[in-house]
Amino acid sequence: MKLAELPDSDLVWLARGGSEPAFNELLARHDGRVFDTALTSLRDCRSDAEDAMQDARLACWAGICAGGQIDDFGAWYLGIARKCCHDFYKNRQRTADWATYDDVEEMVASPLEQIIDLEERSYLHGAVDVLPARQAQAVRMHYLESRDYSEIAREMGITESAVRDATMKGLANLRERLGDKAEALGL
Fold first, then answer.
1. Is there a single domain that holds both residue 109 and residue 82?
2. Which end of the chain is more exposed for a tag (fewer CB within 10 A), N or C?
3. Can you tell me the distance from the alpha carbon of 15 to that of 21, in angstroms, rounded to the nearest whole number?
4. Which residues, given as ranges, of the chain have pLDDT below 70?
C-alpha cells in the first residue's frame, strides 16, 4: 500500500518509527492549509510565514518522536504552527529595527487599499458561495485554502478528476458571473 493511501494515524505511527517519507506525506497533506494560516497570522509576509513553517515542521517532528497522543494530525500541526507564528511575531517585534516614516509608508498599504482588498475578498467569497455546492466546495478548498486535488478528493469522497472538473466548472461559472470584475480579482 502506498503512503498516500494511508490515513494520518498510520502515517504518524510510521513516522514515530523513524519513517521520514511517512512524515513528509503528513506534511504534504496539511502544509497548504497550515501555510495559509501562517501567512494570515504573519500579515501576508511570505518569508516570515516560511520561516515559521520551518519551525513548525521541526516542532512536529520532535512532537511525533516524543510519542504523545495525536488524535487529529492536521489540527495538531495547525496548533503547533499557530504557536510558532505567535512566537515568531513576538520575537520579530522585539528585534525589529526602527524604520523611518518613509520606509513604513512604502511597505504598508493605505487604509483605502486595505478596504478595497477586504471588499474584493469578501465579494469573491460571496460569489463562490452561490456556486453549486460541489463546485463551491472544490473552488474554496483549492483556491482559497490552497489544498491540493488529492486532499480535496479524499475529503469530498470523489476522484481527483471529479475535483478538477468541479474546480474548472466553478471557475468558469465565477468568471461568467463576475464578468469584468473577474479579471480584476485575478480569475
1. no
2. N
3. 8
4. 92-120, 182, 184-187
Number of domains in the chain: 2
pLDDT number for residue 94: 57
CA 125 → CA 80, 158, 164, 185, distances in Å? 27, 23, 19, 11
What is the structure's pLDDT at 108? Answer: 53
Of 51, 63, 61, residue with least CA distance to 27: 61
Q: Are residues 133 and 174 in the same domain?
A: yes
Distance CA 31, CA 164 (A): 20
Can you give the length of the chain in residues? 187
End residue of a domain, out of 70, 95, 120: 95
Is the whole model's pTM more than 0.85, yes or no? no
Nearest by Cα to 59 from 82, 32, 91, 36: 82
Domain check: are 126 and 79 in the same one? Answer: no
Asked if residue 135 and residue 56 are part of one domain, the reply reads: no
pLDDT attached to residue 29: 94
Tally the C-alpha atoms within 13 A of residue 96's C-alpha that lie toward its C-beta.
12
Q: How far apart are CA 142 and CA 129, in angstroms?
A: 14
Please tell me the predicted confidence (pLDDT) of residue 168: 92
Dihedral of alpha carbons 164, 183, 136, 156, sign: positive
The boundaries of the domain holding residue 57 are: 3-95
Assigned C-alpha cell, 97 = 529595527
